[in-house]
Amino acid sequence: IMANKRELKKYLKCVSGEVIEEALFISEYYDDVDGEKINAVIGKVLNLVVEKVSDVSVSFDKTCKISFNGDRKAYNKAHATYYKACYHRLLSDFQKGINEAIKDIKSLRD
Question: To the nearest whole number, what is the mean pLDDT of the chain?
Fold first, then answer.
C-alpha cells in the first residue's frame, strides 16, 4: 500500500497510462487490429482509473469519543484496519480490471 493518497493516485494513473499507451502502440503499428476494439479497451481503462481514483478518498465514519468511548488506542487500531482493508480491496479491484484490459489487448493481436 502506498505511503499516502497522492502517491496511490499517481500509481493508478501511471499504470493506466502504460496500458493505454500499449493499446495505442498496437493500434498504430499493427494493420489488422480493429479500431473499435482498441477504443473499447481504452474506454474501459479510463473508466476504471476514474472510478478507482475517486475511491481513494474514503473516510472513516467513526469518532474516538462516540464510537470508542475515548479509547484512542482502539480507535487508532480500527482506523488503520479500516483503511488497510479499503486500499487492499481498491488495489485488488484495480489490478483485476487492468489484467482484463491486458487480456483484451493481447487478444487483439491473435
Answer: 90
98: number of Cβ within 10 Å: 20
- Given 3-state DSSP classes, what are the helix, strand and coil percentages for the chain, each rounded to the nearest 5? 80, 0, 20
Q: Which residues contact 33 (CB under 8 A, 6 or more apart)?
A: 26, 27, 108, 109
> What is the DSSP code (8-state) at residue 3?
S
Render pLDDT for 71-110 as a digit per residue (tens, 0 to 9). Answer: 889 888 998 899 899 999 999 999 999 999 999 999 887 6
Three cell numbers at 97?
A: 480490471
The residues, ordered by sequence, that sit 6+ positions from 22 with a Cβ below 8 Å of its Cβ are 102, 105
Helices 72-108, 5-29: crossing angle, 10 deg rounding: 0
